[in-house]
Amino acid sequence: MMNRLLATLAFGVFFSLSAQGGIIPWLKGGETGTETQVPTELRRDNLPSLAPMLEHVLPAVVNIAASGKVVVENPLLQDPFFRYFFRGMPPQMERKTQSVGSGVIVDAGKGYVITNHHVVKNADTIYVILKDRRRIKAKLVGSDPETDIAVLKVKPERLQALPLGDSDALRVGDFVVAIGNPFGLGQTVTSGIVSALGRTGLGIEGYENFIQTDASINPGNSGGALVDLRGRLVGINTAIVAPSGGNVGIGFAIPINMAHQVMQQIIKYGEVKRGMLGVQVQDLTPELAEAMGIDVKEGALISGVTKGSAAEKAGLKPGDVIIGFDGKRVKNSAQLRNLVGLKRVGDKAEVELIRDGKRMTMTVTIGKPIAEGGPVTDIPMLEGAYLSDIPPDHPLYGEIQGVLVAGVEMGSPAWQAGLRKGDIILSVNRKRVKSVAEFLQAARQSPARLLLRIQRGNFSLFLVLER
């Protein structure tokens, strides 16, 4: 079940792909320039080997050790009986955290290392351990929780970077190789294939466009490299499906094209400050296309336009079908959301669409996010969250009862507790809620702690919010 999906956010996960049999007898020669040469020579026993390629790749993949502190509620004061005897103790206490993961050197000249946000989250001390066993203190340049990408900087001495590939050119069935640090054992290499592309709706991250692979992923591998057989970086490994707590051959990597765009914003601005288009969209199905009399089979159908948004100012209307954004083909609503999510406020983009059977192109200027719904002002644990009843144009309207999280301010208490825009709150302290009024009434009865059951994408989860 998808509700058993483990993102291994405390330890990091990595892609180990297990291919069966010989996998490169058809490779012929390598490209010149900065890319790693494809191994063309057979071993003495006439069997193909990935070793020549890996000799160039392995020095660019590093291990990461992060430590920090978080403030938690004193557990002895949560129970009334213990609270009486320990009432002199502080209500909060610090707890040390440690995380082990992986990373990839992407710029040897400037010392930039890319990894997962959850590997270095809450860390105040970060060390990068190279293949030659050098241990270098790293500085966090910035991170983006929505895509789970973080950028580190180390002293650029005797480093080797991994050349970037093109994740958009990947095909299902392509062979890939993964390198990481499972269970803190040290650098480990595994291989396999690309199982699927464009995976979304998993609820692991805010912006999802995962490469799925049959990798054997384990804690400690998050932030590691997924490379093609030419030794080019095509993905950053981040999560697995683990219904029994172990690997079942379904792992996910962030495409390097997305990760690289996020990394560039972090390096330039220190953060990713996303803009908003301001449309509600759904996938264009064959039935909808036939009913609308259009000859395309893929796209994002606009079902609503937010008042005062960038979309309204540009002239977009309900019923428009977006088939291209910023020069890239749009296959579905999730892909459009990802493309818009990589734009900053003020950026311009060309939108190709179909209206009344006619193709046209419009230029939109990405605007500031508009938080729909009302803010929660009197419950500190929910500060920064905007809640609304499920609107009629929502895909789950009439199918599910709950409260829609219409927006969450990044860095707010609600954000830090794990709430994300698009979540649907089903219950509070095990009490079902059908409206914002019911939710607020139930939440105010428990000012110290809230147990929320959340519907996120295709699975549900529980969140504990504490003061």
Radius of gyration, Cα only, in angstroms?
A: 24 Å
Proportion of residues in extended strands: 35-45%
Query: What is the second-level CATH architecture of the largest domain?
Result: Beta Barrel
Oligomer category: single chain
Dominant shape: globular
What count of domains describes the coordinates?
3
- What is the CA–CA distance across the termini? 32 Å
Overall residue-averaged pLDDT value? 80
Low-confidence stretches: 1-38
CATH C-level label of the largest domain: Mainly Beta
Helix content: 10-25%
The major pleated sheet works out as: 7 strands, antiparallel
* Overall number of strands: 26
CATH topology of the largest domain: Thrombin, subunit H
Number of helices: 9
Class per helix and strand makeup: mainly beta
Which helices and strands appear, and what pairs or packs with what?
Blueprint: E1 5-6, H1 51-57, E2 61-73, H2 80-85, E3 92-107, E4 112-115, H3 117-120, E5 123-129, E6 135-144, E7 149-153, E8 175-180, E9 188-199, E10 210-213, E11 225-228, E12 233-241, E13 251-255, H4 256-269, E14 279-283, H5 286-292, E15 300-305, H6 310-314, E16 321-325, E17 328-329, H7 333-341, E18 348-355, E19 358-365, E20 374-375, E21 385-389, E22 403-408, H8 413-417, E23 424-428, E24 431-432, H9 436-444, E25 449-456, E26 459-466
Antiparallel strand pairs: 1-12, 2-3, 2-5, 3-4, 4-7, 5-6, 6-7, 8-9, 8-11, 9-10, 10-13, 11-12, 12-13, 14-15, 15-16, 16-17, 16-18, 18-19, 20-21, 21-22, 22-23, 23-24, 23-25, 25-26
